[in-house]
Specification:
Layout: E1 6-7, E2 11-15, H1 21-38, H2 44-54, E3 60-65, E4 68-77, E5 82-89, H3 98-113, E6 117-122, H4 127-133, E7 137-141, E8 145-150
Parallel strand pairs: 5-6
Antiparallel strand pairs: 1-2, 2-3, 3-4, 4-5, 6-8, 7-8
Helix pairs in contact: 1-2
């Protein structure tokens, strides 16, 4: 992700800072709790520690709505694809089309690069429908996760 602030009329992104890590860990715990509890996998400490252990700061952006912290998104490049990770929106920002707007922006970038995007989502998560609407299809699954990918769309 770029370090400069990118903005639309509704949202903006900025580079992640060290001071964002704990608020992000807390947001992850809030957002993922219902699905993790449903799957019998919620652990108050582990849900936060997994973010701390896996966050790729150089590829992560903080999402701002009206200048306030509203979430995060990571787009981490690897040899064969970009991985969409840590895409969290605060509950009060969900269901307003914000996730779709951000995802469209990210996918426009990866399409321009000719890059496939991969992600994993928890089994039964409502987020899966968001990803399917944007062209992601299941590659594999296990009892906890669904692994999805989206090839680049041809330019119009």
């Amino acid at each position: 992700m770029e370090t400069e602030v990118a903005q639309t009329s509704e949202w903006a992104v900025r580079a992640v800072a060290t001071t964002d890590i704990e608020p992000l860990a807390d947001l992850r715990a809030v957002v993922m709790r219902p699905d993790l509890e449903r799957l019998g996998r919620y652990d108050e400490h582990r849900v936060r520690q997994r973010l701390r252990d896996s966050l790729s700061a150089q590829h992560t952006s903080i999402i701002l709505v009206d200048g306030e912290f509203a979430g995060s998104i990571t787009l981490r490049p690897t040899a064969d694809r970009h991985w969409l990770e840590h895409f969290y929106l605060a509950p009060h920002c969900q269901g307003r089309g914000l996730g779709s707007a951000i995802l469209r922006s990210i996918l426009a970038q990866t399409d321009a690069q000719g890059a496939t995007v991969g992600l994993n989502v928890l089994q039964g998560s409502a987020a899966r429908r968001l990803y399917e609407r944007h062209g992601f299809v299941m590659e594999s699954e296990d009892p906890v996760d669904v692994f999805m990918a989206r090839p680049p769309s041809p330019r119009s």
